[in-house]
Amino acid sequence: MNVIIGENAARLGEMAGHKAAELINAAIRDRGQANIILATGASQFETLNTLIKQDVDWSKVVMFHLDEYIALPESSPASFRRYLKERFISKVPPLKAVYLIDGEVDPVAECERLNGIIDKHPIDVALVGIGENGHLAFNDPPADFDIDVPYIIVTLDRECRQQQFNEGWFRSIEEVPTQAISMSIKQILKSTHIICSVPDNRKARAVKNSLEEKVNNLVPASILQLHQSCTFYLDNLSASLLMRHN
After folding, report:
1. Which of 99, 100, 117, 138 is least crowded, fewest Cβ atoms below 10 Å from its Cβ?
2. What top-level class would CATH report for the domain 2-234?
3. Domain limits of the chain?
């Protein structure tokens, strides 16, 4: 696991976005296709802004989606499908395939549908973030490190829902859905490369716990310490509590 620190969120995103494009292009050169996972939320703004400007043959890229609320309409500003369509899919040439999570259909059937697809697409590059509670995707603590299926139904804890409200995605915490479809921890870890973008001082404690505590399911993102090719991209604020940064 590597840690790279930029002076601010813009520089963090620039470095992460360039690295993502480099890894995607390498997969295309090696296999003729790249399978990627994209995350959403405020942590991904700058990374995606850089990625969409890179020279990538997007017609050879298959995109999967990390998580989505259950029963939240796509018309909602908080919809992750809407986020990806507005901030990524509409900004690049047509991809080979896009597999978004539909949170408005039966969630069990939707997980089964996506599980059957992603099993046929080994992931080359996953772009992820971590939550203020240390969650990875919507795997809140205590996360299940052992479940084998790729997509699962999860219940969101209070801290997770509070973060979504604080970031301005919802008008009240009561509006934040209590359940979501999330990629499982094991599925994320199957990715050949993981780029974890984490800006802002709100995430400083979670970053410290994820990088400096022993791996444990009360800090779900700590599992990334065990991945063979994971890089955390931080800014000075999110890195402020790290021992190596002080």
Report:
1. 117
2. alpha beta
3. 2-234
